[in-house]
Amino acid sequence: MSKHLQRDMDRLNQELLSISSMVEEMIDKATLALSERRYELADQVVGSDSFVDQHEVHVEEECLKMLALHQPVAVDLRRIATVMKVNNDLERIADLAVSIAQRAKAMDEFPAFPIPEQLPRMVVLATQMVRGAMDAFVNMDTAAARRIMAMDTSVDQLNRDLIGVLEALMQKRPETVPAAVHCFSAVRHIERIADHATNIAEDVVYLVEGDIVRHKHKHAQQPTSGS
Length: 227
Fold this sequence. Notes:
The structure is a single chain. By secondary structure, the protein is mainly α. It has 7 helices and no strands. Mean pLDDT is 90; it is low at 223-227.
């Protein structure tokens, strides 16, 4: 890698980490607004989205300029491609945090609705996955990236558990349906955040090893037809 390309990459990575820091803060605030009914935090999440959007566009523009100016190959090309993909996933996570915040505000009309006890655990895991995936990216740590990928199974199970809890509640107490639908949407958004964290972890493996592992770990977890 040339000195000029290294300088540009360092600057790009710093901006990406700034986006990541803001996204993690948005997740924290959105989920607190949901689980603890701190609705003032929901407005802060919505207000932060423009920061992420602006920086996401800038990072993509800089990546395209670097591709044209430096014409990178091999690992340098993978590095820029990975930054573009991680950048997009972070922006999507920010959008999901905004959606969670909006669902939280909608539940203000239902103060008696019981938040399922599994929700905080799901939030913790999804947030750990985002933070861990970005740490793996910074350190180019494929072992850590694969651990993040494996965590997605636990989030998926909690997603199924929560859906079951909410469906049972709606059947038993039909008056809770409007609030439960909002909560159901928020749970799905949290699950999608974990999926995007998994994407980032997969991109780390691609960056370091040049191997596209997307979908492979999920197929590996599925039992064969003879088992």
